[in-house]
Amino acid sequence: MRPLRYSINVTLDGCCHHEAGIHPDEESMRYWTAEMERADALLFGRVTYEMMESAWRQPATGTWPDWMGEWEIPFAETIDRAKKYVVSSSLSGVDWNAELVRGDLGQAVQRLKQEPGEGLFVGGVTLPLALADLGLIDEYVFLVQPVLAGHGPTLLAGLRERIQLELVDRHEFRSGAVAVRYRPTRVAA
Fold first, then answer.
1. Distance in angstroms (rounded) separating the CA atoms of residues 10 and 29
2. CA 114 from chain center: how many Å?
3. CA–CA dist 182, 166 (Å, integer)
4. Source organism's superkingdom (predicted)?
5. Phi, psi of 141 (to 5 degrees)
6. What is the number of other CB atoms lying within 10 angstroms of the CB of residue 51?
C-alpha cells in the first residue's frame, strides 16, 4: 500500500495561507521538488489544484514565464508532469494530467492508496483536514517558516480528534525554516 503524505508550508503560529509571508527560496524549492518526486501522484482539492495549475502549468509555448527563476524550473517541471487526482464536486472536468475523484472520499482515497507505488502527495487545507479526520494520512511533512502571520487559515483547524504523532525526520534550512516529518502513532487496542 502506498503511503499518503500531507505536505505544506506553515508559519510558527500555524498559518498555512500561501500569501502569509512564506516565500520560497532555492533551498526550499529543492526540498519541495524532492518531496514531490517521492510521490507517484498528487492529490488536491479544487482550490489547491486551480492555484497550483495557474502558477506551475507549463505554458503552451513550452517556455516558462519570465517571473520564474532558473531555480524554480525543476519544481515546475516536476509538478507539471505529475499525475494528479482532484477531489471536487463542483468541477465538471480537469486536465493538466489530472483525473477527477468523486463519490465517497474515504473509499476513493483508500483505492488510490492500494495501488502500487511509492506514495501519494496531498497539499492544501480543506482536503487534508477531511483526510486526517478519516485517519488516511500516513505522514505529515511541515516546512515551518520563521514567520508569525497573525491571521489566515491555520493548520488542520477543526480536526475532530487529536492525532498523536512521532517525529521521524527533521531538516534545518539556512533561512531558519525547519522541515519536520511525522507519522501517526498507532495506539494498540
1. 15
2. 19
3. 5
4. Bacteria
5. -120, 115
6. 15
Q: Is the Cβ–Cβ distance between 86 and 46 less than 8 Å?
A: yes
Chain Cα centroid distance, residue 158: 18
- Whole-angstrom distance, CA of residue 177 vs CA of residue 129: 23
Query: What are the angstrom distances between the C-alpha of 67 and each of 18, 29, 63, 70, 73?
Result: 17, 15, 12, 10, 11
**CB-CB neighbours of 64 under 10 Å:** 17
What whole-number distance in Å separates Cα of residue 112 and Cα of residue 21? 33
pTM of the model: 0.92
Single-letter code of the amino acid located at 78 = T
Q: In what order do the strands lie in the sheet with 120-122?
A: 98-101, 83-87, 41-45, 120-122, 4-11, 139-145, 178-184, 165-172
Burial class (CB in 10 A: 0-12, 13-18, 19+), 163: middle
Q: Are strands 83-87 and 139-145 parallel, antiparallel or unpaired?
A: unpaired
